[in-house]
Amino acid sequence: MSGVLAAGGLAVVLAWVVFALTGWVVAAPVSVWLGGLVGALAVLLLRDMLPLRGLVALLAPFGVMLPALALRHMAAKLGLPVVPFGALELAVFLVAYLVFLAGAMGALPLEVYRLGYAPWPVAAMVLAICAYGFVTGNWFLPLIAVLGQALWLTGWGSSNWFDYVTHVLLVPVAAVVLVLRLF
Fold this sequence. Notes:
Elements: H1 2-22, H2 28-45, H3 50-59, H4 65-77, H5 87-104, H6 119-136, H7 140-154, H8 162-165, H9 170-181
Helix pairs in contact: 1-2, 1-4, 5-9, 6-7
């Protein structure tokens, strides 16, 4: 089943890339449909091609967060109400996630990543994220946390909850969004 999840994640990410590129020259609804079509066809018809296998090897596990952010961005461009993340939220996330990654790679003595294997710490983190969503009124992160926990419990992919709710590409994405907000 993890192959299906990887294919779905790849299809959404490819759809988002096509959407972002074609969005420069066509209207948002057309770019969303075009992105979805190209992403789905690429994964269905070309999944055994070296470039797509390379993307899966490079980007997997896709988890929940990366495809959800891509879908969220496309939905916002279609006019659906999406609560944006604040600059302070993004800055705090970026610093915390960089510390998390440094600890996971052994560069810091703090290793939070190992908590993603245990049920009680995962439950506590999911509840904390849900409380944050309740306080801020933004249900995107709680949805990701709960969906990530559900997939983690099924054992379809990674045995670590963080692999479902984070992705290393969040670092450049958050950095670019913060820089673009300066202009």
